[in-house]
Amino acid sequence: MIRRATKRFGGKLPRVEAMHSIVLPNPPPRVPSSVEVCPSILYFGTPVALISTLNLEGAANLSPMSSVWALADRLVLGLAQASQGCENFVRSGEAVINLPGPDQCVAVEALAPTTGRFPVPGHKRDMGYRHEGDKFALAKFTPLASRFVGPPRIAECPLQLEVRLLAAHGASVVDGADPGFLLLEAKVLQVHAHQDIVLPGSQHIDTQQWSPLLYVFRHYFATGGRLGRNFRAET
Ligand SMILES: Cc1cc2nc3c(=O)[nH]c(=O)nc-3n(C[C@H](O)[C@H](O)[C@H](O)COP(=O)(O)O)c2cc1C
Description:
single chain; 235 residues; alpha+beta; Pnp Oxidase, Chain A; seven-stranded antiparallel beta sheet; three-stranded antiparallel beta sheet; 5 helices; 16 strands; binds flavin mononucleotide
């Protein structure tokens, strides 16, 4: 990651001079030329999340996802309506957004070709998905009771966010094509963090200890070392 970033900046990384000032390379690096491309997917790199929800009969379901972002105490999620996780979240209004680290990569990929839906929808069966009724057991994850919501947390995930659904918005139909997913706004009710990623005696996440698992054009990555810090960072 560092090596790639170094290449991107023409062999020179921006230097973090003091706590709040960054010195850009001088002369500026050559700007690469661009071509027009049509990638089949646009997953440019976001953290993997595992959303735990409850099925109608009360059993827990886990769904890997990566279309999730945070602003203030809200999360916005993009979930396919054909997924069991989406159905469960919209029906019950409750979920836990579990954030795995690189150590959970193999477990995430074990969950990847499965769905809690039975029977498996035709289009997913054609892609090789199979039904799985106990995803905690499949991924060898440990369920932990949540404080404010029904779905359990995943003990192995360094961050676990209990959420309540506030709004659901159907993705727009364009040229008669319905993309078939919902944009879901959720409020974070409680954050749980592994003790070793919290700065002792504070409410801050230790960014030297926490590393998200990134989903980049259907490949998994860990983050590299820190390149700098935002002028508003509190640690
Ligand atoms: C790493 C990863 C990221 C994914 N991101 C999303 C996503 O953001 N939204 C979505 O609807 N499906 C996403 N999927 C696909 C779902 O996990 C898949 O449809 C799964 O079958 C859902 O399980 P469920 O039907 O039990 O909810 C992702 C899959 C993987 C492996």
